[in-house]
Design brief:
351 residues, alpha/beta, Rossmann fold, 7-stranded parallel β-sheet, 6-stranded parallel β-sheet, 14 helices
Length: 351
Amino acid sequence: MSGITIIIPSLKKGGAEKQACLLAKVLKDKYDVSMIVLNPEAGFEDENIELSGLDRNQIYTLVGGRFTQIRGIYKLLRRNTPKYLFCYLTRPDVFGPIIGKLTGVKYIYQGIRNAKLPFIKILLEWFGNRFSTGVIINNYAGVKMFKHCGIKNIIVIPNCYNAPMPPQVHEQNDSYVTVVMVARFVKQKDYPTAIKSMARAIRQNKNLKFKIIGHGHLETHIRELIHSNEISENTEILINPSNVMQHLLESDIYISTSLFEGTSNSIMEALDASLPVVATNVGDNDKLIINGVNGYLTATRQVDLISEHILELSYSKALRYKFGIEGNRLLRKEYSFEIFKKRYIDLISSK
């Protein structure tokens, strides 16, 4: 079997980490797969290890500074001599191609997981691209920008959603309607717009509840915004719970106010839970949400329009149910495990 190594910064909860583990899962039956984790102290979720299907002895962890990590990658690639190297996120996208070339890896792929990146990260990705076979990005929205920045040999393979269970339809509560948002507490997710939109909607429909699931350095700021917008009594914040899907199934509407995205894993999870989605039209959200069919798309920071869509859905259980069923159907048709697997197998087989 051909050797394949995947490099990822950590195995904490996150979209890139989950997709790296799904890649290991789709390839492990046909290829000899190993994984290198650069910062296990940043997060090492048993859930992700289980998802990958890899044994612990197939996952190598590197603890220490930059030089120690570079030396560790070099030693592992020299020892394991994989034919294919898949990197996820900026640091592996720089270290991986250079060290891969030095150790004789034949095919090296960087992995960009967003439609936009800060300038310094684009510069680093461009530098790593000089040594790589190509760049796999998870969305179509970023192709034009990254090409314009001089990044070559771009291949689009959207995220996969691993949904082994039958489509899930939840019981909707008659006394109140819960709007849920699952996102890291970072600027990209634009919590101010989400909170202002919910505050406006709650003023018109007192039966609305807002559930926020996430974690991050902006937690204090988010709590202050909730208080200043006077929706504390209607809002619940859950920090990194283990049962996210259960919370989605207990909710009625999903909201995403991101300023930029790639292919959103959290929206995929909402579609799996048969939730209608109100989201900003960024990244590949327009591939996950068909406006007026399984949810609504708006421009970024459109507080009035976002709140109007939330209110419309909050007043109609039938509309929520219809949108939820359509969203679940789209997810399983376009983003299945089987399609994801075929795309990667085809890529490897073409070499």
